[in-house]
Request: fold
Amino acid sequence: MNTTIQYIKQKCPDNIKIGIVLGSGLNAFCNSLESKISISYNDIPGFRQASVKGHKGEFVSGSLHNHNIICANGRFHYYEGYKYNDVAVIIDVFKALGCDLVIMTNASGCVIKEWKVGDLMLINGHLDYSFTKSKNKPTIISDGWYDNSLLSKVIEIAREKNVTLREGIYTWTTGPSYETISEIEEIKQLGGHAVGMSGLPEIERIYNLNMKMIGLCCLTNHASGISGKELTHSEVVEKAQNSHTDFIKLLNAIIEQIEIN
Reply:
């Protein structure tokens, strides 16, 4: 890991305080950065490759609104065969580079019929529906994990920028197959609003490393049984790309207005 960090540090600007994990189809944000530098995962000693469509597999660093930033354009998933503790290695990199804030994004299925595909959702709690650690019925985790003042600021920014921002509980499943209709119904009954195959390992690592976090879901489709359509990963990537205007607008405004220690 030391060799990995040293290699990345040599390529990136100093004093990086914000790390952003970009979900499927959300890589267009990287075009907002000034003095942009791209580092392919393939070129980093001791690092791994992203293998999922929509995840390019690179770190992209640069500046925006006088903040030095590093983006992970491509993440890792439990269903790719990694051990649970290895999935969130990107967060370890962010921490080693000095990041105080992580903006964790992903493409998610929407469990709420009344919400629209393309809306964004701010995560204010989560459910672990993977059953990898316990076979018991999952319960919502939120208290102490999510900074209410930070969430309130993001909601205020979204309102100022006229961006539709839902708030809700993110539900993690292992994938790679999409959830069944009965599973989605149970997730809804448990209190979930969005469901996806990434994010929770990173959320847990961010929490354990005492970093601040903003979690944003791009709702790229209605989950199984909500719309009546069969889901495909290609459709998810396409919908995420189509909704990137509001995503980029909100992300830009957050970085401009948020206070970093």
User: Anything to note?
Assistant: The CA atoms of residues 227 and 250 lie 27 Å apart. DSSP finds eight helices and nine strands in the chain. The chain has a mean pLDDT of 88. The radius of gyration is 17 Å.
